[in-house]
């Protein structure tokens, strides 16, 4: 909703905010597609924004100025700690489907390698809007690449990282005490934004994109 209000779109265009934590953008796209497929709307812009560098992980979990964010009944069901741990969730999922640490590290290496190659070939150039800014020293720069892509990532480096369980970042599940998830094979802390245009044939006609 804030994006719509701060954009140049007419004030008559409705907007809403979806909060599903890490899955908010994907959920927004699902809702947009559902609206277009059902015929309720012809054109939808769906996307999201993430600014992890400005929000310390876990800042809103425990008791604070405004108290515990969860009700006693939620805590009774899920417990005051661990309920929020996406790391524990990842460990449980890996355990359920028999995914090993080595497989996770290999997938991460392949993902970074493919992204590096795609960047070099300019495959993302048409999808990324350059963002201009200045460093702390006042030097101008243009951000034109996904900051999560790490050139030079290899299995040797990833295999040497400690797991989040061993670092006591999250409580370990009983059936995988050593853990599998590391900072190298998990999603990184980053900032970014993305959006897609979803429309049907009628929407294209209204926008002048179809005959």
Automatic annotation (TrEMBL):
Where would I find the Thiolase N-terminal domain in this sequence? 1-202
One of the Pfam families matching this protein, by short name:
Thiolase_N
Taxonomically, which superkingdom?
Answer: Eukaryota
UniProt GO molecular function: acyltransferase activity, transferring groups other than amino-acyl groups
Give the InterPro entries listed for this entry. Answer: Thiolase, Thiolase-like, Thiolase_N
The name this protein goes by in its record? Thiolase N-terminal domain-containing protein
């Amino acid at each position: 909703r804030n994006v719509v209000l701060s954009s140049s779109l007419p004030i008559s265009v409705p907007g809403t905010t979806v909060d599903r934590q890490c899955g908010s953008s994907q959920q927004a796209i699902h809702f947009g597609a559902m609206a277009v497929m059902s015929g309720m709307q012809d054109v939808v812009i769906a996307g999201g924004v993430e600014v992890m560098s400005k929000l310390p992980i876990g800042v809103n979990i425990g008791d604070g100025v405004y108290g515990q964010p969860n009700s006693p009944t939620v805590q009774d069901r899920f417990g005051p700690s661990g309920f929020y741990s996406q790391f524990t969730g990842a460990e449980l999922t890996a355990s359920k489907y028999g995914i090993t640490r080595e497989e996770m590290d290999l997938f991460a290496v392949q993902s970074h390698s493919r992204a590096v190659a795609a960047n070099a070939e300019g495959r993302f150039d048409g999808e990324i809007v350059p963002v201009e800014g200045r460093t702390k020293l006042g030097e101008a720069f243009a951000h034109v690449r996904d900051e999560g892509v790490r050139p030079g990532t290899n299995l040797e480096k990833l295999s040497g990282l400690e797991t989040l369980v061993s670092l006591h970042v999250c409580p370990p599940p009983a059936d995988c005490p050593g853990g599998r998830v590391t900072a190298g094979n998990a999603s990184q802390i980053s900032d970014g934004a993305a959006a897609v245009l979803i429309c049907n044939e009628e929407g294209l006609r209204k926008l002048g994109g179809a005959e």
